[in-house]
Amino acid sequence: MPAPLSLPLIDLSPFLSTRPDPQARREVANQLHKACVEFGFFYCTGVGSVVSRDEMREALAVARDFFNRPDEEKAKLRIKSGDGARGYQRIGENVTQYKKDWHEGWDAYKPLPPSLEDPSKLLHGPNQWPSEPASFRPVLERWVDKMHVIGHALMEATAMALGIDVGGDSDEWQRMKGWVSDPFWVMRCIGYPPLPSDAEGVSCGAHKDYGNFTLLHADSTPGALQVFLRDPAGPTLEGDERGTWIDADPVEDAFVVNVGEMVEVYSAGLYKATLHRVVHKSPTYRVSIPFFFEPTLEARIEPLPSALKLCEKLPGAASTAPVKAVVYGDFLRSKVSNNFSLEDS
Ligand SMILES: O=C(O)CCC(=O)C(=O)O
Ligand SMILES: [Fe+2]
C-alpha cells in the first residue's frame, strides 16, 4: 500500500529572520511553489521567533473559555442583520452550500475608522469583543499583530515563488506589497462539538477560502480537517472536481496554511484555492482559530506578468480559463452575504 499522502512542511524561518540568507530563501520559495501548485495547502513551521508555543496554547484557551460561557452571554454578541459579519453565531447559523455547519463561531474583522463605522451597513459595524474571559481581547489582538508578521513573510516568499525579484524595486513586488499594505483581515474562533450522526451537513462544509492566505491554528484533535486533493482519477466528485479527501491533522508548532481565491487570481491560476472541510466526529470539543490575511478592500487583484510567464512554461498546471481581475472588497461582500442562514430565531 502506498503511504497516505500528507501535506508538505515548509520552514518559513528564512523569511522571518532579520539576517536574510538569499540561498535559504530561494529554497523555501521553491518548496512553496511546489506545495501551492500541487496542494494549495502546506504546514508552515519555523514561526517560533514570532509566536511561542505558550502563545499558541493561550489563544486556543481563551477561545475555548469563551465558548464555555453561558448561551445568553454569547447571544448578546450575535451577528446583527445590518453589519451581517462581526460577532457570534450559534450552531447552524453558518451555512455552506445551503447546509448548516455544525459549529459555533465568533468572527472579527479589521476595524474601520470610527468615522466610517455604521452598524446598519454590511461589514461596517464594530467588532463585538466578549468581556469574559477578560484576557480574550488582549490575547487575540496580539494574535492579530503576530499573524500579520507571518502573512507579510508569506507574501514575500510567494512573490519569489512566482519568480518576482523582491530585492530591488520591481514593479510587480511593489504591486503585491500594495495589495497587503492595509490587510482587511478576518479572524474566526470556531468551536466544534462532535458531529451528530443525523446532522444534515458536516462540521464545516466543503469550501475554498476566498482571500489571500489562511493561517489556521487548531487544537490537537486529529481526523477533523480534510483537504481535497485534485486528481482526475480520484474516487470522489466534489462539484466539478475529481479527487481524494486527505486528513490535515495538526502538527505541533505549525500552522496549516492555504491559499485563497485571490492568490489563484494573481498567480494566474497556478496556485489554486483548494476545497477543504471539517468532519469532526470524535467525542471532544474541537477549537480552531483561522486567521485570514487578506488584501486591502480597494486592491484590484490581477494576474501578475511573472505568473503568466510561468504558466506558459507549465501549461498543465495553469488554469484552462483565463483568470479575471477583481476588486477584493467587491468579491468579499458577495461572499459574506451568502454565508449566513436566513432564519432569525
Ligand atoms: O476549523 C478548521 O479547521 C477550518 C476552518 C475553515 O476552513 C474556515 O473557517 O475557513
Ligand atoms: Fe476555510
TrEMBL record:
Molecular function GO labels: metal ion binding; oxidoreductase activity
InterPro entries in the cross-refs: DIOX_N, IPNS-like_FE2OG_OXY, IPNS-like_sf, Iron_ascorbate_oxido_reductase, Oxoglu/Fe-dep_dioxygenase_dom
Keyword Disulfide bond tagged: no
Assigned protein family: Belongs to the iron/ascorbate-dependent oxidoreductase family.
Protein's name in the database: Fe2OG dioxygenase domain-containing protein
Glycoprotein among keywords: no
Keywords from the UniProt entry: Iron, Metal-binding, Oxidoreductase
Matching PROSITE patterns: FE2OG_OXY (PS51471)
Domain Fe2OG dioxygenase: 183-295
Organism encoding this protein: Rhodotorula diobovata
Short name of any one Pfam family annotated for the protein: 2OG-FeII_Oxy
